[in-house]
Amino acid sequence: MRRSAWYGPLLIVTVLANLGDPVAGQVVVGDVSDAGNGGAIEGVRLELIDVDGRVVASTDSDPLGRFVLMPERAGRYSVFAERLGYTSVRSGVFGVMEGSPVVVELQLDVEAIPLSPVVVLAGGQIRSAAMAGFEQRRNDPTLGGHFLDAADIRARPMATPTQLLRQLPSVHLYQVMTQDNPTGMDRSLIYLSGSGAISLISGMCLAQVYINGVPARQTQDGDFTIDDYLDGVPIAGIELYPRASAAPFQYRGTGECGVVLFWIEEPAPSSDGWGLKRIAAGVGMIVGMLIVGFSR
User: Fold this and answer.
1) Residue 138 and which of 8, 80, 148, 237 are 20 to 30 A apart at CA?
2) Residue 22: count of CB within 10 angstroms of its CB
3) Cβ atoms of 72 and 197 closer than 8 Å
């Protein structure tokens, strides 16, 4: 079943909200469905790519499979779609003109994903699928990353999450001082050398950060820092890519600054249940995802 009826009213609302003028701007709208049963697919990562291969806009499909992408200028683009459990697809190249919305409908096929076996490690920790990906990227010579594993992190037992990055290249920590934290020792923003759209410091840009693959928003005013998200949470690994172009494709974000990936340890199952620390960490991640969602 096609869902084209939603495009008209959503286009008007979206363009008015973002541009203040319903005819001044470019909009790509569409939906993503399962090629087998025609059902909507939520959580598909969609990227608008220009003819030079640059990602110019990105978003995730909503519970009805719908999405809206808004490039800054007219041009020729394609849409790349990917989601765990489905084969990735890329549309053909199409033109986007000012004031002329383009509708793109994509269908994804279900893909069987081989799962790596879980290996039990000493100390009650497990090597998760996420950390298996960490190891693969660390051994990939085509990526320009810097890596801290669990052993490196244990060697810095007094460090806050952001301070773990202090010795890595291109990293600059901007301490956030507030009334209840006048020294700024426990909360820092992560900046990387290079130009970017968001910057308080000349020659630096505010890093794009992901926690367990989920975007985590830093704010220049210091209301939300990575130290807030990860306070008291055990970290299994960290990846730093000083330039977005050197990061894995799915983590390049807007491409305006380099990327930092934090991976959280997965404790082995126990009869003790979740525990207060794990519950607090889970709540923190949910809040972080909501903040990112509202900021889009």
Assistant:
1) 80
2) 14
3) no
The set of long-range contacts for 191-197, using a CB threshold of 8 Å and a minimum separation of 24, is 192/242, 192/257, 192/258, 193/242, 194/170, 194/242, 194/243, 194/257, 194/258, 196/256, 196/257, 197/254, 197/256
Task: Give the tens place of pLDDT for each residue, 281-294.
Answer: 444 544 444 444 44
In the CATH scheme, what is the code of domain 4-108? 2.60.40.10
**pLDDT tens digits, 27-38:** 999 999 999 899
- CATH 2.60.40.10 domain position(s) in the chain: 4-108
The residues with which 140 forms a beta bridge, in sequence order, are none
Of residues 26, 177, 9, 15, the one with CA closest to residue 96: 26
Q: Locate CATH 2.170.130.10 in the chain.
A: 119-295
Prediction pTM value: 0.49
Which ranges of 2-125 would DSSP assign to H, the alpha helix?
Answer: 7-19
